[in-house]
Structure formats: structure tokens, C-alpha cells
Design brief:
The chain is mainly α and about 70 residues long. About 50% of the residues lie in helices and about 0% in strands.
């Protein structure tokens, strides 16, 4: 079953997750626009004395920081 992005977004949660699992994307979760807006409204950037990890497209670089 190959769905377009629009079809996938319109698919109910459990069915969407089953489809994503068949694609090997098991950690993908849908986030509503409202939840994303809420996250950005409450987000506070790290202070100067806190560590921050920036993602530039290299997941291996981020993963290596956790080892």
C-alpha cells in the first residue's frame, strides 16, 4: 500500500502507524498543528551555560553524542 503524503495525513492514527511500520518508520508519530504551536509557544532555548545539540542532517553525529 503506497499512500501519498496527503493520504497518509488523512489516515486515522492506528492505520497510519501500521503503514509507517511497514515502511520501517516505526518511530514516526503524527503531531497536530495545535500541539506543534503549543510546543513552540513554550520552548525556551538553552541558556549559555547549558549544552545544546544542533541537528544538521547527520543522525550519526547526533547519535554518537549519546554514547
Amino acid at each position: 500500500m503506497n499512500l501519498t503524503n496527503a493520504q497518509l495525513r488523512a489516515t486515522p492514527g492506528p492505520k497510519r502507524l501500521r503503514h509507517l511500520r511497514t515502511l520501517g518508520i516505526t518511530n514516526a508519530l503524527a503531531v497536530t498543528p495545535e500541539a506543534l504551536d503549543d510546543f513552540f509557544a513554550r520552548f525556551e532555548p538553552p541558556a549559555d551555560d547549558e549544552d545544546a545539540t544542533e541537528y544538521h542532517g547527520d543522525i550519526d553525529a547526533v547519535y554518537s553524542m549519546t554514547q
